[in-house]
Structures are given as structure tokens and as C-alpha cells.
Here is the input.
Amino acid sequence: MENIHTIALAMVKKGKGILAADESNGTMAKRLESVKIPSTEANRLSFRETLFTSPKIKNFISGVILYDETIKQTASNGQNIAELLNEYGVIPGIKVDKGLVPLALCKEEKVTEGLDGLNQRLLEYYKLGARFTKWRAIYNISNIHPSKTAILSNAHALARYAAIVQDSKMVPIVEPEVLMDGSHDIKKCYDVTASVLNECFNQLIIHKVDLKGIVLKPNMILNGLQSGKKNEAKEVAEKTLDCIKKNVPHDVPGIAFLSGGQTEVEATENLNSINKINDTKFMFTFSYGRALQKSALNTWAKNINDKKSVQNVFDARSEMNSLATFGKWNLQLEKKAA
Ligand code: 5MM
Here is the structure.
């Protein structure tokens, strides 16, 4: 019987990870315009359908996070998108947050909205075939951020969301993202992420969320983008693993990292390094957006009718990340795949 525990385990199954294709239309417009393709509904579907029907998707991708527009679209063979993914052996998921708004009285900070009417929307998404959901909170780092208010209010919203989703028999992906931007060092990222995760689990437990039926989607522990410091995979892995061990309860079946602006190869290498030293029962996998789609998007932009080339690039990227879930990726394999 399909229940939230089995779905969560399937999402983080060794060798597989999640494709985050849930860009809202605003973000998708930026992505498409960066490669000089107009962001029309047809183009958004065409690129996404090309990825979803790639020949090796079932080997490396456990689930796809969709956006509201996409889950309601019809593929070129007449199937709805969730049916199409099921046929390719991939679990359909859906982003259910309604995006970021300024956090009142907390300058430069954001809180995620979307709880109003969420249970009604979930009924519709379940009927359309979604079996997991996603909600993303963001936290920025500076000398004064994140504030206690941002940490508490986002954790509260994430926990309310997760409880409502489990009540609708779906698996919530809980995504607290500490952003890479800033001149902070890796130690500061560790400390902020630890506080954020700690408060998230505090709230999840208060809200009676079944931790065996969630997937955590956190950031890795990295130096700030403007710090001028290079991230060494070994240090990223040690600090990330330590932070997870100290702040994530054992019941959580799996952790699917976001890429957060790392390059495709960095995101793979860091995941690989984490899995090489993983001495826990947590499954560590990927739930990447940009780090799975960037090269595929560049290839697609060269000729939007050449599906095969786009799919080859996407399958190769997925395969590299699949190897990283076993700690079996290396640069030689990367060069070969390229
Ligand atoms: C795919 O991008 C998602 C966000 O889109 P919006 O900002 O338009 O809502 C995002 O939530 C994504 O799922 C995660 O941040 C992971 O993506 P990256 O690119 O960081 O791996």
C-alpha cells in the first residue's frame, strides 16, 4: 500500500534524486531569457517535456517537482503531465508555496506565504496525480541576519505546511534554504544553518509532523559567494554532515540537497564527498534545479527541436549525480560524460 513512508523512501532511494522543475513563471522567464528564448507557455512546456521524457530518467530521477502551470498542462501525446511522469517511473510532486513576501518589521527578510486554502489546493493536486509537495523558506546571512523573527516565522510556516500536507496523504519536502549570497565564511553558514534546522524540527515536532514521512531539502554548508574563499569538497562534506547529524532527528529518511547557485560539477562533487563519508542512516541525494538543468537548457536553446541532444545532456548530468549518491563519482567519469 502506498503511504507517506513508502513514498518518502522512494523519493530518496539510493541512486536516484529529485528534479526541481518548479520554477514559477517569473523565474522561468529569467532562465529562458538568459538563453534568448521567449518565455511562452508552449516553450516552458516544450523544454520541461523534453526532460521528463528523456530515455534514462527512470534510472536516475525518483521524482519531479512541478509548478502549478505544468501539472495542469497536457503533454504532446495527450497525457496529463503527472500521467506521463508515472509512465516514466517518476513520482510527480508539486510546489505549493505561493512565494516570498517581505517579513513585516524585519528589513530585507522574507517569509513564505501560501497556507490559506492550502488543503483545498492539495485535494486538486492529489487528483491530478501529485504525491509529494514542496515549500521553500529562505534566510539571508549578514551581520544582523537572519533575525530570530525570520527563523521562527519561517519554521512555523514550514511546520504548518508539512502538517497540512501529511493530513492530505502526501509527503512534504521541507526546504529551509540559507542563501549562499554574502561575504560570510563557512563557519557562519554552519552556525546559521544549525539554528535554522534546529528551529524547523522544533516546530515540526510541535505540529505533530510524522518525521518518517518528510524529505528535508537543505542547503550545503558553504562559504558565502562574495567571501572570495574557495569551497573545498572535503570541508563542505565534513561540515554539512556534522551539521545534519547534530540538528536532524534520526527518523527523517532522507536529505535531498538544493544546489543553491553552485555550478553543476560543484553540486555533484560536494554530494559525492558527503556520501563518501556518510556514517549515518540518512540517505543523501539531490533535489537540484539549476544544477540539473543548466547545460540542458543551453543545449536546448541552440536548437529547440533537437530533443535527443538535450536529453543526452540531461541524462548525463543525472547519471553523474546518481553516482554521487553512492560516493562513486569522479572527475574522469565527468570528463567522459561530457
Ligand atoms: C527550481 O527553482 C525553485 C524556485 O523557483 P521560484 O523561485 O520561481 O519559486 C526552487 O525552489 C528550487 O526548487 C530550489 O531552490 C532548488 O533549486 P536550485 O537551483 O537551488 O537547486
Observations:
- The radius of gyration is 19 Å.
